[in-house]
Design brief:
Shape of chain A: elongated
Number of domains of chain A: 2
Radius of gyration of chain A: 19 Å
Distance between the termini of chain A: 49 Å
CATH architecture of the largest domain in chain B: Orthogonal Bundle
CATH class of the largest domain in chain B: Mainly Alpha
CATH architecture of the largest domain in chain A: Sandwich
Order of helices and strands of chain A: HHEEHEEEEEEEEE
Order of helices and strands of chain B: HHHHHHHHH
Strand content of chain A: 35-45%
Distance between the termini of chain B: 47 Å
CATH superfamily of the largest domain in chain B: RNA polymerase sigma factor, region 2, helix turn helix motif
Strand content of chain B: under 5%
Largest interface: A-B, 52 and 61 residues
Oligomer: heterodimer
């Protein structure tokens, strides 16, 4: 391939990078929100959880209700989101169970928080809609905070 | 979305570019300046995104990995000994995080077989791409057929050629403006796959 042709194909890759597969709209803002966590204790390990099964999430990401699951290490968190008027009700279940602190951060709103019961269940009502991140502050044993990526609920 | 911090002086990274700018941001972020972290996220997310996508992750998972990488930076602010090497650290961390995600997804799907049933069997992931026409489809299809190593190298070559990512070139040992034999072969493969077109292999 001569240099001109190399440049042509490199330009095609540049087009692909910029136009066909650009950074998704709002990702920068969501990432900025995700790291703007208050009360981060340097002594407490911070772990980023993952949403399980991206494909079933499409509806949730699009703002509809549904069940979502996220996990990190041995911890699995199932969350059921129900629309209640302008807000959401969030029913969650931590496995393994533990009386851990649960916080739901929504951009431009107060953080909602609660504590899971001994069976690992928690409920938060009147959670505002918007860019949302869930934090689980795990007590007992090695203290750690699990944070989820933000999603638009 | 972030709080407005009003500080009497100009931010220390103002007027700086490239690795100097990122190093100034890192130092300010360590001192608790949240704007500094926001600047890094705004300016370097394209790099993290294209590395994540270059590993072959689907759109949604790549979005999550981008956020995990920035959370990892938050955790490592104090420990990252060389703030000038940020781009290199981001590339390495994104690749590692992408691999971890793949392993964890696979393990979790095994643990919870009911989730596996929901997955479409072997179909390509629905991509939310900005494909505008046949030519775009063809280019994208050809690119995705390249070995992952080539996809990553070509994406990074494009970014490294830009002023704001000059340090990416350094991190990868790419002399500026050079294509090199491996990149040349990747471009040639891309041309070949594009010309075959129409799903032919």
């Amino acid at each position: 391939m001569d240099p001109a042709e190399q440049q042509y194909w490199l330009d095609q890759v540049a087009y692909l990078v910029d136009e066909l597969d650009p950074v998704p709209a709002g990702l920068v803002e969501r990432a900025q929100f995700a790291v703007a966590i208050e009360d981060i204790d340097a002594e407490v390990e911070l772990e980023a959880a993952l949403w399980l099964d991206q494909r079933s999430l499409v509806g949730v990401r699009g703002g509809g209700p549904g069940t979502i699951t996220f996990f990190v290490g041995d911890l699995t968190v199932m969350v059921n989101v129900t629309r209640t008027g302008e807000c959401h009700r969030i029913d969650g279940w931590l496995v393994p169970a533990g009386e851990h602190g649960v916080e739901v951060r929504v951009a431009d709103h107060e953080t909602s928080s609660t504590t899971a019961d001994e069976g690992g269940r928690f409920v938060l009502t009147e959670v505002p809609r918007g860019t949302t991140q869930i934090l689980i502050r795990m007590n007992g044993g090695r203290p750690r905070t699990v944070v989820t990526p933000t999603v638009v609920l | 979305m972030t709080e407005l911090h009003t500080v009497g002086t100009n931010p220390p990274w103002e007027g700086l570019a490239g690795s100097e700018r990122y190093a100034a941001c890192m130092i300010a972020a360590r001192d608790g300046d949240k704007r500094a972290l926001d600047v890094l996220i705004a300016e370097l997310t394209p790099l993290v995104w294209h590395v994540a996508r270059g590993t072959g992750l689907d759109h949604g998972t790549a979005e999550d990995v981008v956020q995990s990488v920035w959370l990892a930076l938050l955790r490592h602010l104090e420990r990252l000994s060389e703030p000038r090497a940020l781009a290199g650290w981001l590339i390495t961390t994104t690749r590692r995080e992408a691999n971890r995600v793949r392993q964890r997804m696979a393990a979790q799907t095994e643990l919870l077989p009911e989730y596996a049933e929901q997955l479409p069997s072997g179909d390509p992931l629905p991509e939310t791409l900005m494909l505008r026409g046949e030519r775009d489809d063809k280019l994208w299809a050809a690119f995705r057929k390249l070995p992952e190593r080539c996809q990553m190298l070509l994406r990074l070559t494009v970014l490294a050629g830009r002023a704001e990512y000059r340090e990416v070139a350094a991190a990868l040992g790419m002399p500026h403006g050079s294509i090199g034999p491996t990149r040349g072969r990747c471009l040639k493969s891309l041309r070949g796959l594009y010309e075959d077109g129409d799903g032919a292999r």
